[in-house]
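Design review, sub-item: ligand-bound model
Attendees: FS, YL, KQ
YL presented the inputs for the flavin-adenine dinucleotide complex:
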Amino acid sequence: MKIVVIGGGIGGYTAAIKAAQYKAEVVLIEKGKLGGTCLNRGCIPTKAFLHDAHIIDAVRTSKAQGIFDSVPNHNVQAIIDRKDTIVTRLRDGIASLCKANKIEMIEDEASFIDQNTLFLKNKKENISADVFIIATGSMPSRLPIDGAQSEEIWTSDDCFDTPLLPGMHVCLIGGGVIGVELATFYKSIGCNVTIVEAQKRILPSIDRDAANQLATILKKQSVTILTNAFVKEIKSVSPYQVICTVNDIEHKIVADRIIQSVGRKAVFSDLKLENARIESNKVIQVNDAYQTNVSHIYAIGDVNGQSWLAHAAAAQGKVAVDHIFNPEKPTHQLLIPSVVYSDPQIASIGLDEAIAKEQNIEINVGKFLVSANGKHVVEGKERGFIKVITDKENKILGSTIFSHLASEMIPYMTQAILTHQTIESLEGVVFPHPTLTESLEDAMADVLGMSIHSFPKVRNNI
Ligand SMILES: Cc1cc2nc3c(=O)[nH]c(=O)nc-3n(C[C@H](O)[C@H](O)[C@H](O)COP(=O)(O)OP(=O)(O)OC[C@H]3O[C@@H](n4cnc5c(N)ncnc54)[C@H](O)[C@@H]3O)c2cc1C
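KQ shared the predicted structure:
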């Protein structure tokens, strides 16, 4: 079987390798850089930046503790250079993996001629296949207001190669995950940061307690957060300005750099989907197996609009390829965790406490303050909490971890939900001491009112 994958981001290259494992003849077409958004201008660059930001913060904290005499100056260009080294190394790694799996890689832009044929723009050649997997990803959205379309006004795509220096004022429009992660970085390297968010809180789709507590932490670190703030106009000629109303009062923010982080939109306009009669609106519609309305054409990752997360794109790619080779087998229902790589991080899975309450779902909630965990205290990372949501029979339905390295702990809760565990069924699991993960044990035990390291008063006050 010949499978052509369009788009070499994390969804596309994962699907391509999985298809090669099934011994298919695989072609991977990428018009830009292998690794797509995640590797080149998304997950990896932001996390490289945030890693260095944490080092800078740790040095500052250590100075306050008397461990260092002074805080040395940091070099923002070196942070960018280190990011480039990481990205290049990982990109080379993906290319080697594709080569080792005998995947034919084509650097080109593909568009459909019909349901069985693509046209390659640069080569000016056609390519046909039995199955196509569209993995063309997404791009940053811009606000539909004056000034927002100007290239002078950055999106996340522009943040990774040009240094912003300490003392500069950065205004982030949008307090979602990307906006908050960028704010965390710019604040740590010494920029003055303002977040402008239209909703009544930052991170509106994340656990309310975690988002509110993170906002408090950011404000203490001198980040200005304007909520209920509607941007009406952006002045894209220096000095850049954001004109907005905050609680109906007009506000003007003057900044050295304005960055829009107001969501993303699926990329498929150059695919000529109409030639293959593939249905789309703002995204490409798919079923549970990620098939489009044309059964041998799949669409995975950001382009189908289901998740907008890298690990979701990769997981969907694997499900789609499994379905190509085993169409009779039921598809895996994916349980996708989400993470904000703030400081502390916020990781969530499954049912959210506020949503459960809104929908009158009866739940029990276990909570644990990580300041009562030895390893958190040792690492000086004692801000945060863990929440575990169960049904009335104590079956685990959801969790939010607001803590240092929450991203590394959330898979435990994901697995618990996926394997239908109850608090009682996990009681035999012994966590090593001292670890951050012991906090999970305490949060789960708190569902039964049995957390060893919680005072009842503290538990009720998270
Ligand atoms: C700043 C930022 C930080 C992020 N951080 C995280 C994070 O920490 N964790 C997380 O899970 N997610 C994160 N994301 C989201 C994540 O990057 C995306 O969900 C992920 O990249 C989607 O993968 P994809 O394979 O669907 O698409 P993409 O990675 O966008 O790849 C699509 C590829 O298709 C190519 N392409 C498009 N059209 C064509 C065509 N016609 N022919 C050939 N090639 C084509 C593009 O050039 C691109 O390389 C972040 C995103 C941003 C912007």
